[in-house]
Amino acid sequence: MIRRIVILSVVLLLVGAVNASAKWWIFGQSQEEVATRYIYINDISYDELGDSVTFYRDVLPKGEVRITGRGQAGKGVIGTVQISTDDGLSWNRAQLASNGSFEFRFRPVVGETYTLKIKVLDTAGKSNDVEETRKELTVSGRNIHTLIQETLDGMINAYRTESAREFMRYVDPEFTGDAFILESAIRKDFTALDQIDMYYTFNNIATGANGKVFASITFSRQVVASKSGQILQDKGQTEFTFSLEGNKALVYSMKNPLIFGLSEAEDVATGLVNSPTSEGNLMINPGGNAEISDLDEISDVTDAPVTPSVTSSVPTPTNLSSYDFTSHHTCSFRFEFPINSMETDLSNTYDIILEESLSPSGPWQEVFREAFYDPTFFNIGTTNIGSYQGLLYYRAIVEEQATDQQSLPSNTVVIDNH
To answer: How many angstroms separate the first and last alpha carbons of the chain?
Structure first.
């Protein structure tokens, strides 16, 4: 089964700022223009990478650069998508689906710089603003995976041996959560935790603007709570940002759930990763007691199994999760869907629905519906998510257009909107 990632973005707007049906296309284009609704390079947002980006050979899947996206032509139809890797001197035709989704792959040479441009044409020959898509891409032979691994291994070893000085050797002095607070936090961790044991695997490594390196990991951890003597275990996913200095990678920022600095989590962490676990995560309370959190304290995904009273032939969206959440501002959602948009015209077959509730058991209110594009971005605003102070719950449903039959709901995601 082919697993495809579908991404939703929800804007949490202030009360009265917009009505619930307001929408904006990702690049601010009019729906009557030929434009790109989104572009990705190796699953990283094209727009967020800045004017230039460096990828590393050792983390390029099959040594390839993969560009995906979707064009829009207002009331028209996208006729072709062409991609240049030499600043427009030559053009290559991308694979195009009927809904405007496109894909292009090429195998870069290490050390070469490629100037990318993307041309989207409707059937009348009208084009997008090609210059807006210009981006320089370079592939480095540097083993970035090894650099990041050496840093994380060094930090974990220093954390296990309770060496604050050694730990801070791997931290950027400009650490976003304040390096002094981080050092104070890990020293408090050493008091609260004994017999620290931790393992991790990489999910992804990529680079973006300003040379920063982003790494996603899955971790498993076991500690002994110093005060209670209780053995505590947890697991989850988290993210780091690194800066590169010479032959070293230094930690620039960390997201919740934290694996270091739990004693000052609010000041140390920058952002939140919704880890797919129903077990909660390790935390240290203000009294210095280590414990496993309840789901509504730190975990943002509820994976309780759904026990439906009915069945459905419509495929169910799975693994719903949220990321890049800022209270009362923005939150993005993504899930997996078992049908490939390059093989099936999803936009003329299914609608995607996002539902919201103030309780995990409902009642549920539909806050978004649109033809299902794979993947795509939606920006919406509702009164509840703009004004409500508390936990908000979301789930996704797919509806078949021809029959109005709905899939079973996805798992439920909860965000803390205090």
So the answer is: 39
Give CATH for domain 144-299: 3.10.450.50
Rounded average pLDDT over 111-125: 94
335 forms beta bridges with: 6
What is 302-416's CATH number, 3.90.960.10, 3.40.50.1100, 2.60.40.10, 3.40.50.880?
A: 2.60.40.10
Distance between CA atoms of residues 265 and 15, nearest Å: 29
Count of CB atoms within 10 A of residue 390's CB? 9
| pLDDT tens-digit series, residues 249-298 | 999 999 888 999 999 988 898 877 655 444 678 999 888 888 987 544 44
Residue labelled with tokens 């605003």: 381
* Token duo for residue 122: 């409707």
110: Cβ–Cβ under 8 A, 6 or more apart, which residues? 57, 139, 140, 141
CA dihedral (288, 292, 297, 300) positive or negative: positive
Instruction: Mark residue 62 as left, alpha or beta (left: phi above 0; alpha: psi -120 to 50; beta: remaining).
Output: left
Residue 231 CA: distances (Å) to CA of 104, 131, 262, 295? 50, 57, 17, 19
Signed CA dihedral, 249, 253, 256, 261: sign only: positive
Same fold, 31-140 and 144-299: no
Q: 176: closest CA among 113, 226, 242?
A: 242
Beta carbons within 8 Å of 350's beta carbon, 6+ residues apart:
314, 371, 372, 398, 399, 400, 401
Q: What is the DSSP letter of 383?
A: H
Cβ contacts of residue 378 below 8 Å, gap of 6+?
8, 9, 10, 23, 354, 368, 370
Full-prediction pTM beyond 0.85? no
